UniProtKB/TrEMBL annotation:
It comes from Lentinula detonsa. Residues 1-47 are annotated as: Disordered. It comes from the Eukaryota. Residues 104-151 form the RING-type domain. This is RING-type domain-containing protein. Keywords: Coiled coil, Metal-binding, Zinc, Zinc-finger. Residues 24-39 have a biased composition (Polar residues). Residues 70-97 form a coiled coil. Pfam families: zf-C3HC4. GO terms for molecular function: zinc ion binding.
Amino acid sequence: MHSPPSTPYRRLITYSRRDRRLHSTSPLPTCETQPSRDSSSCKEVHREEKVVDKGLYTSDTTSLRDAPPVAGIEKQLAEALEELDAAKEKIGRYEAAVEEDLSCDVCTLPAWQPCILPCGHSMCADCLYEDARHRRLSGRAIYSMKCGYCRSRITRAPIVSFDWQRRVDAMALEKGIPIPKRNPFKWPPAGTPKNHRSRIV
């Protein structure tokens, strides 16, 4: 019997079977599955794996050894907190000093209209007006008013320090303190009898 003649379909089927054998999904040969493989190559691979494992272990142990102890970290944290508290206290003292410097020497309230007396000391306009009112009611002349610190007579009209006033306003805005309405400073105050003001320059 003659074999059937070769056809393109036959050749295609034969090629497909051979191709499947070449592209088999069987596992790749390893040192264990292919004993005939060069043993030196397998040993080299195992040696490299051991070196990598040893390097990772050494790196981990070195990091743990070089890390600062927990007690040392707690001590550093405590020292940092102490420094922070000291800085806050220093800032608080400075703010208190600034606030005191911007306050009236008599009523110790913010000097909304700080006035410089002839002697160089200061009073707010409200305190000056109040003192003048008491003197007027008691029949005493304004020119006999004295500084509350050095007891020098106020022989000249006090001068409003607008630079000081701006600093008082800035402090009030920072602390959220409402700034009261100011009237123009006048000296002697309105309503002062003429005979009580004749010696005021």
